[in-house]
Write a structure and sequence with these properties.
Number of domains of chain B: 1
CATH class of one domain in chain A: Alpha Beta
Helix content of chain B: 25-40%
Number of helices of chain A: 10
Mean pLDDT of chain A: 93
Number of strands of chain B: 8
Strand content of chain A: 15-25%
Largest sheet of chain B: 8 strands, mixed
CATH topology of chain B: Rossmann fold
Mean pLDDT of chain B: 95
Order of helices and strands of chain A: EEEHEHEHEHHHEEHEHEHH
CATH superfamily of chain B: Alpha/Beta hydrolase fold, catalytic domain
CATH topology of one domain in chain A: Rossmann fold
CATH superfamily of one domain in chain A: Alpha/Beta hydrolase fold, catalytic domain
Shape of chain A: globular
Structural class of chain A: alpha/beta
Strand order of the largest sheet of chain A: 1-2-4-3-5-6-9-10
Order of helices and strands of chain B: EEEHEHEHEHHEHEH
CATH architecture of chain B: 3-Layer(aba) Sandwich
Radius of gyration of chain A: 19 Å
Largest interface: A-B, 50 and 47 residues
Strand content of chain B: 15-25%
Oligomer: heterodimer
Distance between the termini of chain A: 46 Å
Radius of gyration of chain B: 16 Å
Largest sheet of chain A: 8 strands, mixed
Low-confidence stretches of chain A: none
């Protein structure tokens, strides 16, 4: 079977790849840059994988940094687990970070990665020296008023749907498709990213089976639309951070984004930190404008 | 006791038949770190068949690698058991099992004919407000048995905010067809139970057996 290959301008696979065992869960770890350079951790968002940093990470590495990233459990080439949770993602992150250094080093994190790293650093502030949070700053959305009985009906539906799925999760498989179909499917969630980039991602984040290509993301992962977590918790943790902080926010709403507005986030930026708002850019700020964001990040890290 | 093993995603769940009987089944849910054997020893008078479930990471159920527990996953454990039992049940939940029983009695309101919450480990859960929780990166070397240390850590600090609990209670009230679908027989009253006690549809100041007798008569 031929392996599909694609190139993308500026994209470079990691210089080193290896496995790390996080309490029995095998995680795929990637590094760009010289081993002797200072470490910066790079954390991807939900449903993504470290390969989505293939343009951005080399730019940071070229600035004199050893970039260390990993695929979260169930994502990319890391093991599929029986259980997934925010807490488990935090613990996996600590496990990888602890295997590299016990010193506080910078963290650059995107989307869900940014949100859970703020929780990690709120409880373990000695782990990082600086934080760049790329559109991983949830804030309370201004939703229209929904009557109580409608809220109850919506919640009942969400819970029932999620429970129903748990009965068939053990036999769940990702839908196979052609190489191009997988890129098109991803485009639904990443509508602002070019098809050339999405096809490049297929070569990393998907595998080729006998009956077609499938994304590697664990098919059993399906998040319910309910749970005790709420966005204000992230804001409270963000404002408590004591390390230098740079938040980067695109202004264009996207399906994978948080819908956060600068005016809502600004009061929660940690003292001495700053929020950079990038106009006419979506949730994947570092992919849409890798040059601009990497320049901003390198200046902040220096 | 006999055991049926049920598949919940990558976990094999042990559902114990404690005894046979005639009438509506009773499902017993254990506390944090306990198992079906422990909860089966409760002095329960019930005419129907009695079942007890080992949650994920407990008793004879599978211990997953690397934790990742939350209350909602255990709610789904119970839903798997409910489908196997095949008819509406009454539930007694001890400690953590009381909270999980509460979630499923709301999430699958038509399948639960009354929930009784009793004291036991894991009843309180974690803080209901935002806290700076130092993360534990490893439990170190351990044997392969139960209870899973990650279950003990993660399920003793899961958040149970009142707003979330009350949104679930509304499901039970709207969909169970029972006027008072939840009975609180615990003496310990963490914040999430305090919130429930103030609501219509929740019985307080009642013993476990009194509540069971009441639900048996439905």
């Amino acid at each position: 079977m031929l392996t599909e290959t694609r190139t993308y301008p500026g994209a470079r696979r990691p210089d080193r790849t290896y496995r790390h065992e996080a309490d029995g869960v095998g995680l795929a770890v990637y590094e760009w840059g010289r081993e002797s350079d200072p470490v910066v951790f790079m954390v991807h968002g939900g449903s993504d994988f470290a390969g989505t940093f293939d343009v951005f990470a080399p730019l940071i590495a070229a600035g004199g940094w050893r970039v260390v990233a990993w695929d979260a459990r169930g994502h990319g080439d890391s093991d599929h687990a029986a259980l997934y949770s925010w807490e488990a993602d935090i613990r996996d992150a600590l496990s990888v970070m602890g295997s590299i250094t016990d010193e506080p080093v910078p963290v650059v994190a995107h989307s869900k990665g940014g949100a859970f790293m703020m929780q990690l650093l709120d409880g373990s502030p000695y782990r990082a020296s600086r934080m760049v949070n790329i559109d991983g700053m949830p804030s309370k959305r201004r939703m229209p008023d929904v009557p109580d009985h409608d809220q109850t009906r919506i919640l009942a539906g969400d819970v029932a749907k999620w429970l129903d799925y748990r009965h068939i999760a053990h036999s769940a498989e990702r839908k196979p498709g052609t190489f191009e179909e997988l890129a098109q499917r991803r485009a639904v969630m990443n509508p602002r990213l070019s098809i050339e980039w999405l096809e490049y991602l297929v070569t990393i984040g998907a595998r080729q089976d006998e009956d077609g290509w499938r994304w590697k993301l664990d098919p059993t992962m399906r998040f319910g639309g309910f749970g005790p977590w709420h966005a204000e918790q992230s804001a409270l943790r963000m404002v408590s951070l004591t390390i230098p902080f740079l938040g980067i926010l695109g202004t264009v709403d996207e399906p994978m984004g948080w819908g956060a507005r600068a005016r809502d986030l600004q009061p929660w930026i940690p003292a001495g930190g700053r929020l950079e708002v990038m106009e006419d850019i979506g949730h994947f700020v570092h992919i849409e404008d890798p040059e601009g964001v990497s320049k901003m990040v390198l200046e902040f890290l220096s | 006791m006999s055991i049926s093993y049920l598949q919940h995603n990558r976990i094999s769940l042990a559902l114990h038949t404690v005894r046979e009987g005639s009438g509506r089944p009773l499902l017993l849910l254990h506390g944090l770190g306990e198992d079906a054997t422990r909860v089966s020893q409760m002095p329960v008078k019930w005419a129907g068949p009695v079942y007890a479930l080992d949650f994920t990471g407990h008793g004879a159920s599978t211990v997953p690698r690397g934790g990742g527990y939350n209350a909602e996953i255990l709610m789904a454990d119970v839903d798997i058991a409910l489908r196997h039992i095949g008819e509406p049940v009454t539930i007694v939940g001890r400690g953590l099992g009381g909270y999980i029983g509460f979630l499923i009695s709301c999430g699958r309101a038509a399948l639960v004919r009354g929930l009784v919450i009793v004291d036991g480990p894991g009843l309180a859960g974690g803080a209901s407000n935002t806290v700076s929780t130092t993360e534990i990166a490893s439990v170190g070397k351990r044997n392969a048995g139960t209870p899973d240390p990650w279950a003990l850590i993660e399920l003793s600090r899961d958040s149970r905010p009142a707003s979330y609990v009350l949104s679930f209670l509304r499901l039970a009230i709207a969909n169970s067809g029972i006027e008072e679908p939840v009975a609180i027989a615990s003496k310990v009253s963490p914040k999430w139970i305090d919130a429930l006690k103030r609501e219509a549809g929740v019985i307080t100041d009642i013993s476990m057996q009194e509540a069971l007798d009441m639900y048996a008569a439905l």
